[in-house]
Amino acid sequence: MFNTTRLGKRKWLLAWTLVMLQFLFIGLILLTSPLLHLKWWVILFIVLGIALGLYAIQTIRLGNFNISPQVKLNGKLIAHGPYRFIRHPMYTAILLTCWPLVVGHFSYLRLGFVLGLTLVLVVKLHIEEQYLKQAFQPYLEYTRTSKKLIPFIY
Fold it and tell me: Which of 80, 94, 99, 86 is nearest to 129 (CA)?
């Protein structure tokens, strides 16, 4: 399934380490959140994040979906729907959900979790973009007309 050379194993291990760290930080944020006592604005952001994530998955289709930053075999470049404005809307959806959970029930420990999650997602998206540039010739042009995480900003 993946390149069995030493470099291929390292890339595979890095990709899946990032995925595991992503889920670890999300789990820690959720476990330390007062899910039964959320502020109304936190709930609003959670709903917006979930809606964006579902819209992104619906647009990309499950056959093209991959939690690893590596491009799926026979994957397709998607540049419509939420991908028209942001190249990583699922990462945006995660951050849109997790940051308000932390800010709404703040502690320095939880801030560390969400900063760790943000760092993992930024590293993951940079690696993913390198794979996408290699896999899809039009990807470089697509990067000129879209932002990474925040529409019109970054």
Answer: 86
